[in-house]
């Protein structure tokens, strides 16, 4: 593998692992939004509601931007570009195996189109349509879902793994506020949190 392709390999590895970490964080927050009846989750959102909302929105934007370039078919740094370059490499997978990987990407065209629409309309250009006709723009069939994002991310991770196995041991720390709230409850700090104004009055 020539030096430039080797550098791209390292670039893709880092980018996909970073993407995976952010998607795991987004998925974790989404799960917690559905568990608000749990005391430690309710307390966490009472204390960190604005911060967690900010993080949640930042994660969405960052993930979409990364997926956009990762699955770009025309650019010179996307996954398809890398796979086509890797075909001519003396080391690595066979052309047949790489063609199968490209086919797997092509089967995700629907999800990739949603990523592009999200990026173009919402993030990059802040088009008028999403803001003035919010419900119509975010119609169910157009909305990019967590599961679709996870599917795209897992697919990229699996492809990378087939070229150069890596171990994903990264953690985001997004769970720490929820663990902290559990300690607050177990140690009966609720009265003090109320007194300090860190949670809403019960």
How would you describe this structure in keywords?
single chain; 202 residues; mainly alpha; 71% helix; globular
Explain what the structure shows:
71% of the residues lie in helices and 0% in strands. It contains ten helices and no strands. Helix 1 runs antiparallel to helix 8. The longest helix has 32 residues, at 39-70. The relative contact order is 0.15.
Helices and strands, with pairings:
Layout: H1 3-33, H2 39-70, H3 79-87, H4 95-106, H5 109-124, H6 128-132, H7 134-137, H8 146-163, H9 176-186, H10 190-195
Helix pairs in contact: 1-2, 1-3, 1-8, 2-5, 2-8, 2-9, 3-4
The main β sheet shows up as:
none
Mean pLDDT: 83
- Described by its quaternary structure, the protein is single chain
Helix content: over 70%
> How far do the termini sit from each other?
63 Å
- Can you tell me the overall shape? globular
What share of residues are in beta strands?
Answer: under 5%
Give the helices and strands as they follow along the chain: HHHHHHHHHH
* Radius of gyration of CA atoms, rounded to a whole number: 21 Å
